[in-house]
From TrEMBL:
Family, as annotated: Belongs to the DNA2/NAM7 helicase family.
Domain DNA2/NAM7 helicase helicase: 386-453, 499-572
Species: Wolfiporia cocos (strain MD-104)
Gene Ontology MF, one: hydrolase activity
InterPro entries attached to this UniProt entry: Coronavir_polyprotein_1ab (IPR050534), DNA2/NAM7-like_C (IPR041679), DNA2/NAM7_AAA_11 (IPR041677), P-loop_NTPase (IPR027417), SF1_C_Upf1 (IPR047187)
Protein name: Nucleoside triphosphate hydrolase protein
C-alpha cells in the first residue's frame, strides 16, 4: 500500500488474476467537490459502483467507500448536525459535500453494488438522512444459495477456483472485516464492483430488484431501518468466545473427538465460521492444545475434528467455541423480510393487520378489519371460573382484531389464553385456525399444560428436535402421553403426512421462530390450519421486529392477534445493553386500550401487596391463603464478598449459605428452586449441590432463564443476591421484579444486611428489607440450627 498525500495505492489480495493497484482517495464528506466526483465517475463503467462501509459505536455508519474498477473514494462521514472545521474554506455558493454525496448515491446511470446492501441503505437513512437508488444487494442475485454460506460469497465473486479463499474469508467475515481499516473497507468496495463482470451473474444483475429508499413511505422506511439496525446490534452482542460444558469422558477416533455435552446453553453446533479450541493435559505433554470444527452434533453428542492427536489417557481441561453463532433461521427470515421491504417486494402497509401494529394511521386505528374480521361476539363459556379482569381480557381478544393484555405475575395469563381457545375452537371452520406462540419453547409448553389441565386436548405442539432430544424430553412427558407433541424431525415435506400428524387439530402451539421455519411452511401446516387467530404470550419479551416474518407472510389471513405480557417483567433480550428495543407494550396506540389483569393468585399476600405498591401503582390485588409476613425471610450473610468471574459475578460464602438452606428444605421434602442474577453464581451453586449429593438438575437458575423458561414459579424460592459492594443488577427493576415474584409459599433472600442498608436502600430489595423490618431477618447460625 503506497501513500501519497490523501491518495493511496492498494494492491488487491482476493483474486488469483492480476489486477493493477487501484487508487484510493481519502476525503472528509464536507470536502467533496463537484470536480472531484466528476473526475472519479469518469473511471466508472456502466457495470456499477461498488459500495462498502464501516460502522462505529451503536452501529453508526462512519466511513463509506465507493469504488470503480480503478478508483475508490473513502469518505469519512459527518453526522448531519456536525459542523466541519473547514466550513469557512468552502464556497457557500457551491453544493455541500452531503448534497454531492447524495447525487452519487442517487445517480441513475450507475447501479450500486454491495454485500448486505440492506444494512448500508438503513445506515445511510438512519445516521445521515441519505437515500440510495439503483442499489443491488449482491447476495440476492444468487437466491438459490444459502445467504450466509461462504460458498455463496465465493460464487458471487467469480468462483472458488479464481479466488484466494482464506483472504476472502478474512476480508468479508474475519479479523480484517472486524478491524475495518481503510484498506479493508476499500478492498470490499472494489471487489463488489468487480462482481459486475462475473458472467455467471449477468442475467441476474439485469433481473435484480433494486433498493430505492426515495420510493418508500417515510414512516415505513423509519420503521424497517430501525428493525435492521436493532437486529445488527443484537447480533453484535453475541459472544465471540463461549466455554462449552462437556463430560470428562471422551474418545478419539480418526482425528476426531467424540464428546458428551452437559449443558444446553453451551452446546456445540455445526457452523461455517466458528472454530473450537481444546485444551488438554497428558502426562508426557502437559497443557497441550488443538483446534478444530464441529463435524456433527445431535442431542448431547458432538464429534469434533481436531488438528492434533489426543491420547485416550488425556484429560480435557476446557473447550471453547471461538466466533459468533450464525443467525438462526428466524433471524435469517427477519433479515430477508427487511430486505424485501427495501426492495419493495413486500410492504408494511400491504395488510391491514400489519398497518395497525407497525405504521398505523388514524383511519386504521378507527376502523376494525371488517372485510376480513367480523368481530366475534361469542360468549366466553368455559368450565372454570374467570375473575372480572380475566373475563374482560377474554372478551377483548374475541371481539377485536388487535388487542393487548397486561398481566402482572400470577394473574392468570395462561388462564385467559385457555378461555379464549375453548370459546373460539368450536366455532372454527376449515379455513380457520388458532396459533398460540411465545418467545420460548417452555412458555409454549406451559400453555399446553394449561390447556390439558382444563380438559382441552385437541391441539398440537410443535417443538424443535434440537431443543427436545436428550435435553428437555422430561418437560414434555405429561402432554406427550396424549399424543399432542410433534417434533420437528417427524415433519416431512408431504402435506398428506402432515394431515396425519395433525389429526384435524385446529389449534397449533409453537415458538414465534417456528412459525417462520421453512420446513413448517412447505409441509403444509398453514394450509391445513390457516393462521387466522394468533395469541402471543411473553409478548413483552419479544422485540417488535421479530414479528416481521409472521405479519408479512401471513398478514393476509390473520383476522385477530392478541399480545399478552408484562413490561414490568423481563424486557426483550439485549434491552439492558442497547436501551432502544421496543416490544408491543411500547406502542402507545395499543397500550392505551389494553386490559389489565388485576388479581394475582401466586404470591403470598404480603409479597404480592409489596410488589403491587412498588411496581404496579397499587392496582394489583392479592388473592392468596398465605398472609403471614414470615413468608419472606432475609438471611444476613455477613462475610460474603462479590467476586468477578468470567465476565459475571459470584459470592462463595453466600453460595454456602444457600446450599445449607437447600439441604434443610430437601430434608423436609419441600419443593424449591434457587434464583440468582449471575451465571457464575448459578454455576457455583450447581457444583455445590452436586457435592452435597442432593438433586441439582433444574434447581439453579439465572433470573433471565426463569420467567417463562423451565418454570415460572415454585413453592419455595431461595434468592442469592451475590452483590456485597456494588448495586449492579439490583438497579434493574424489571429483572428484580421477576426474581421477587416467583414463590407460591415462601421466599428466602440471602444477602448482606449492611450492604442493603448502606449501599442499596433504594433498590427494590432494599425497600423490601426496610419495610419488613427486624423481624424478617435471620442469621446463618439460625439456619444451621434449622430455624427456617
Amino acid at each position: 500500500m503506497a501513500k501519497q498525500n490523501n491518495r493511496v495505492l492498494i494492491s488487491q489480495s482476493l483474486f488469483r488474476a492480476q489486477y493493477d493497484p487501484f487508487v484510493v482517495t481519502s476525503v472528509n464528506e464536507s470536502e467533496l467537490t463537484v470536480d472531484c466526483v466528476a473526475s472519479f465517475l469518469q473511471t466508472a463503467t456502466k457495470g456499477g459502483l461498488g459500495i462498502a462501509s464501516s460502522h462505529g459505536p451503536k452501529g453508526v455508519l462512519t466511513f463509506l467507500a465507493v469504488s470503480t474498477p480503478t478508483n475508490c473514494l473513502y469518505i469519512r462521514m459527518a453526522a448531519p448536525s456536525t459542523k466541519s472545521k473547514d466550513k469557512k474554506k468552502v464556497d457557500k455558493t457551491s453544493p455541500s459535500g452531503r448534497t454531492i454525496l447524495q447525487a452519487i448515491l442517487s445517480h441513475s446511470d450507475y447501479r450500486k453494488l454491495a454485500f448486505d446492501m440492506h444494512s448500508i441503505a438503513a445506515a445511510l437513512h438512519l445516521d445521515h438522512a441519505l437515500a440510495i437508488t439503483e442499489a443491488i444487494d449482491l447476495q440476492s442475485l444468487v437466491f438459490w444459495k444459502p445467504r450466509g454460506a461462504p460458498a455463496t460469497m465465493l460464487y458471487i465473486l467469480g468462483g472458488a477456483d479464481k479466488l484466494y479463499e482464506r483472504n476472502v474469508s478474512d476480508a468479508f467475515r474475519g479479523e480484517a472485516f472486524d478491524a475495518a481499516t481503510m484498506q479493508n473497507v476499500c478492498l470490499r468496495a472494489w471487489a463488489s464492483c468487480q462482481t459486475a463482470f462475473n458472467p455467471k451473474l449477468e442475467r441476474h444483475h439485469q433481473a435484480a430488484q433494486a433498493i430505492d429508499t426515495f420510493a418508500i413511505n417515510k414512516q415505513d422506511l423509519n420503521a424497517i431501518c430501525k428493525f435492521i439496525r436493532d437486529a445488527e446490534r443484537l447480533h453484535a452482542l453475541k459472544p465471540t468466545r463461549v466455554k462449552n460444558d462437556v463430560a470428562p469422558q471422551f474418545s478419539f477416533k480418526s482425528d476426531a473427538l467424540e464428546l458428551g455435552m452437559t449443558r444446553f446453553k453451551t452446546r456445540m453446533r455445526t457452523s461455517y465460521d466458528q472454530q473450537l479450541f481444546v485444551e488438554f493435559e497428558h502426562k508426557n505433554r502437559p497443557n497441550t492444545s488443538a483446534s478444530g470444527r464441529v463435524e456433527y452434533s445431535h442431542g448431547k453428542t458432538a464429534r469434533v475434528t481436531v488438528n492434533a492427536v489426543v491420547p485416550a489417557t488425556s484429560t480435557i481441561r476446557s473447550i471453547y467455541t471461538i466466533g459468533k453463532d450464525a443467525p438462526t433461521p428466524a433471524e435469517w427470515q427477519r433479515l430477508l423480510v427487511s430486505l424485501y421491504v427495501l426492495q419493495r417486494k413486500v410492504s408494511l402497509r400491504e395488510h391491514a393487520i400489519s398497518r395497525k401494529i407497525f405504521v398505523p394511521s388514524s383511519a386504521d386505528l378507527a376502523s376494525p378489519i371488517t372485510s376480513v374480521n367480523p368481530p366475534c361476539t361469542a360468549a366466553v363459556t368455559v368450565p372454570f371460573p374467570l375473575n372480572q379482569s380475566q373475563l374482560k381480557a377474554a372478551r377483548k381478544i374475541l371481539s377485536n382484531d388487535v388487542s393487548l393484555i397486561y398481566g402482572p405475575p400470577g394473574t392468570g395469563k395462561t388462564t385467559v389464553i385457555a378461555a379464549v381457545v375453548m370459546a373460539l375452537a368450536p366455532t372454527l371452520t376449515d379455513k380457520e385456525g388458532i396459533w398460540l406462540v411465545a418467545h420460548s419453547n417452555v412458555a409454549v409448553k406451559n400453555i399446553a399444560e394449561k390447556l390439558a389441565r382444563v380438559g382441552f386436548l385437541d391441539f398440537k405442539l410443535l417443538v424443535s428436535e434440537d431443543f427436545h432430544y436428550e435435553w428437555h424430553e422430561h418437560l414434555y412427558t405429561t402432554i406427550e402421553r396424549n399424543g399432542n407433541v410433534i417434533r420437528s424431525d417427524e415433519i416431512g415435506q408431504d402435506p398428506t403426512g402432515t394431515a396425519r400428524l395433525l389429526l384435524d387439530s385446529k389449534v397449533i402451539l409453537c415458538t414465534l421462530a417456528m412459525v417462520s421455519n421453512h420446513r413448517i411452511k412447505t409441509a403444509g401446516f398453514m394450509r391445513l390450519v390457516p393462521i387466522t387467530t394468533v395469541i402471543v404470550d411473553e409478548a413483552s419479551q419479544i422485540e417488535l421486529g421479530c414479528y416481521l416474518p409472521l405479519l408479512c407472510d401471513f398478514g393476509h389471513t390473520i383476522r385477530r392477534i392478541a399480545f399478552i405480557g408484562d413490561d414490568k417483567q423481563l424486557a426483550p433480550y439485549g434491552q439492558d445493553d442497547l436501551g432502544t428495543l421496543d416490544s408491543v407494550f411500547e406502542l402507545k396506540h395499543l397500550r392505551k386500550s389494553s386490559v389489565f389483569l388485576d388479581t394475582q393468585y401466586r404470591m403470598p399476600a404480603p409479597i404480592g401487596d409489596f410488589i403491587s405498591r412498588h411496581i404496579y401503582g397499587g392496582k394489583l390485588k392479592s388473592n392468596h391463603l398465605v398472609t403471614s409476613p414470615l413468608s419472606c425471610r432475609l438471611v444476613d450473610v455477613r462475610n460474603g464478598k462479590e467476586q468477578k468471574a468470567s465476565g459475571s459475578w459470584m459470592n462463595e460464602v453466600e453460595a454456602n449459605v444457600v446450599i445449607a438452606i437447600a439441604k434443610k428444605l430437601h430434608a423436609r421434602g419441600k419443593v424449591y428452586r434457587i434464583i440468582t442474577p449471575y451465571d457464575a453464581q448459578r454455576n457455583l451453586l450447581e457444583k455445590k449441590l452436586k457435592s452435597a449429593e442432593i438433586p441439582w438438575e433444574d434447581k439453579c437458575f439465572n433470573v433471565d432463564s426463569f420467567q417463562g423458561k423451565y418454570c415460572s414459579e415454585d413453592d419455595h424460592i431461595i434468592i442469592s443476591v451475590v452483590r456485597s459492594e456494588k448495586v449492579g443488577f439490583l438497579t434493574n427493576l424489571r429483572r428484580t421484579n421477576v426474581m421477587l415474584s416467583r414463590c407460591k409459599q415462601s421466599m428466602i433472600i440471602c444477602t448482606s444486611r449492611a450492604f442493603l442498608e448502606q449501599k442499596a436502600p433504594k433498590t427494590l430489595i432494599g425497600k423490601l428489607a426496610a419495610e419488613w423490618g427486624q423481624s424478617s431477618w435471620i442469621s446463618v447460625k439460625d439456619i444451621l440450627a434449622g430455624n427456617l
